[in-house]
Design goal:
The complex is a heterodimer of chains A (208) and B (287). Chain A is elongated and about 115 Å long. Chain A has 208 residues and is mostly beta strands. In chain A, a hairpin with a 4-residue loop joins strand 1 and strand 2. In chain A, strands 6-8-12-10 form a four-stranded antiparallel beta sheet, with no helix packed on it. A three-stranded antiparallel beta sheet of chain A has the order 11-9-13, with no helix packed on it. In chain A, 7% of the residues lie in helices and 38% in strands. Chain A contains one helix and 13 strands, in the order H-E-E-E-E-E-E-E-E-E-E-E-E-E. The N and C termini of chain A lie far apart (72 Å). The termini of chain B are far apart. Chain B has two helices and 20 strands. In chain B, a hairpin with an 8-residue loop joins strand 9 and strand 10. Classes of the chains: A mainly beta (208), B mainly beta (287). Chains A and B meet through strand 4, strand 5, strand 6, strand 7 and strand 8 of A and strand 1, strand 2, strand 3, strand 5 and strand 9 of B. Strand 5 of chain A pairs antiparallel with strand 2 of chain B.
């Protein structure tokens, strides 16, 4: 009886189910089998798990430059971002060599983003006259550009209307931040007559 | 009756002179971060869009890429990242009544052969506005940044592409040039420290410098700044300027050194005087 019990015990130890998690390890990294709940909605919160693959060296720096991204994390920064444009169609009218024509619109931005916002041009298309290059659109010269004004505006001189121009930015939440975009054009006596138009996309986004 | 008439007039005036905005919209949430494994299908992301105007508006929905320019500014554009194709809006446009909101639904499908790493994208909501004609047509757009990380092992690597202290300096203001490149498939947090050591190996200057806080994948950044060595005494001679960049979640460090020969104007004068005296002594001894 006693021998039978010992035999059963030994067999139980030998045949006990081992962990069969899909886990591969090496001296350098670990890959986990992950399960992602596809098709689920977004949930707030959650933890972001990082795993250093090797412990830190005595100097405080890691001896390995690799780490693992684990699937299944979802996080969103709740909050709002509002953009208002006072005018979306600006007419610079008929140009003359004796004056600079100006047309303006005001962008009003509000957000509770903790890192603030950025407001910039993201796309520009169309045919226009020569872009300003000397910082000022001057009467008598063929030049086209814009400038911005407001508490969060990023420049005060006249610059070429192009994509990826940062117009305004904040480092924290704002309420009704106003940025005035002033489009300017002037012509020289040698400027070719014609109709010119442009489409400009301006975008606001929360800062990273 | 008089009171009612006054109120009626006030309401009419208010309506007539109420501020009318041509483009007004709101999005929420404002940022997303998700991790997904290769082969993920139909993972849903929801963005709420509000029409703040007094008329029904159409809003087009797009996925665009994001990257950092040389100054660290995040810019957005189309066809910058392969992951832009992994996300698709359920509908390409939304029609929203005035003052109302709707959910913009996006579905994520990650290819099975997608490599581990980060993809910075933007969920863009664009107000369908007027075109140019004989005008400047402005279109407003709101973008919610989205960090999409494909699971797996990633390796962080930041390169110091250029570290150029001045080889020779006449004053105690040394112009420096530094260029960094994030060669990782993931973003890296970073900070930097500059130190100067004299020919005796003694550290005579050490301070943090601002290189920004985060570099996105493949981002490059350049800095040009003057190092003012105003405090302390700096004897003429050779110095070594070291830049240390601390980066990554794995706490890596990149280091680069450059030498500077500091020879101020007074040292030139003293050297000329010494040479003159030596030359005189030699000449006198010869005669």
């Amino acid at each position: 009886m006693k021998k039978t019990a010992v035999l059963i015990f030994i067999l139980a130890v030998l045949l006990a189910p081992t962990r069969t998690a899909a886990l591969m390890t090496s001296s350098n990294y670990t890959i986990y089998a992950d399960a992602v709940d596809s098709g689920g909605g977004l949930s707030a919160g959650g933890s972001y798990i990082l795993q250093d693959t090797v412990g830190e060296s005595p100097a405080g720096f890691s001896t390995s430059s690799a780490y693992e991204i684990r699937a299944g994390y979802q996080h969103m920064e709740k909050g709002f971002l509002t953009l208002q444009l006072s005018a979306t169609s600006l007419n610079l009218g008929t140009l003359s060599a004796s004056a600079v024509n100006v047309a303006s619109t005001t962008a009003t931005i509000s957000t509770d983003a903790s890192a603030g916002f950025s407001f910039s041009t993201t796309a520009v298309a169309g045919t226009v006259i020569t872009a300003v290059a000397d910082g000022t659109v001057s009467a008598g010269s063929e030049e086209y550009g814009f400038t911005v004004s407001g508490n969060e505006s990023q420049f005060s001189n006249d610059v070429a209307v192009a994509s990826s121009v940062l117009l305004a930015a904040s480092t924290g939440p704002v309420t009704n931040s106003l940025t005035v975009l002033n489009f300017k054009a002037s012509m020289a006596s040698s400027t070719t007559a014609g109709s010119y138009s442009q489409t400009v996309t301006v975008s606001a986004s929360a800062n990273l | 009756m008089k009171k009612f008439l006054m109120c009626f007039v006030a309401v009419v005036v208010g309506i007539l002179f109420a501020p009318v905005t041509a483009d007004a919209m709101t999005i929420s949430p404002i940022k997303f971060h998700l991790t997904a494994s290769p082969g993920t299908t139909n993972q849903k992301i929801i963005l709420r869009v509000t029409n703040d105007e007094a008329v029904t508006k159409y809003f087009s929905l797009k996925i665009i890429g994001a990257k950092q320019n040389d100054q660290g500014q995040v810019v957005y554009g189309a066809n910058w990242d392969e992951a832009e194709k992994w996300l698709k809006p359920e509908k390409s446009a939304l029609e929203i009544l005035p003052g109302k909101n709707k959910e913009a639904v996006f579905f994520l499908n990650v290819p099975a052969d997608a490599l581990p790493g980060s993809h910075w994208l933007g969920l863009a909501v664009e107000s369908v506005g007027s075109s140019g004609g004989q005008r400047i047509g402005l279109t407003g757009q709101l973008i919610a940044p989205l960090l999409l990380q494909v699971s797996g092992v990633v390796e962080e690597k930041l390169e110091i592409a250029e570290w150029s202290p001045p080889g020779f300096a006449l004053t105690k203001v040394w112009p420096m040039s530094l260029s960094l490149k994030n060669a990782s498939p993931t973003e890296v947090p970073l900070s930097a420290e500059l130190s100067v050591t004299n020919w005796l190996g003694r550290e005579v200057y050490k301070n943090k410098i601002n290189v920004g806080e985060l570099m996105l994948p493949s981002a490059e950044r350049s800095f040009h700044f003057d190092l003012p060595l105003t405090a302390g005494r700096y004897w003429p001679g050779p110095y070594r300027a070291d830049i240390r960049i601390f980066y990554g979640r794995t706490t890596q460090m990149a280091i680069s050194s450059g030498s500077v020969w500091y020879f101020p104007f007074y040292a030139w004068g003293l050297s000329a005087l010494a040479l003159g005296i030596a030359g005189y002594i030699i000449f006198r001894n010869k005669n």
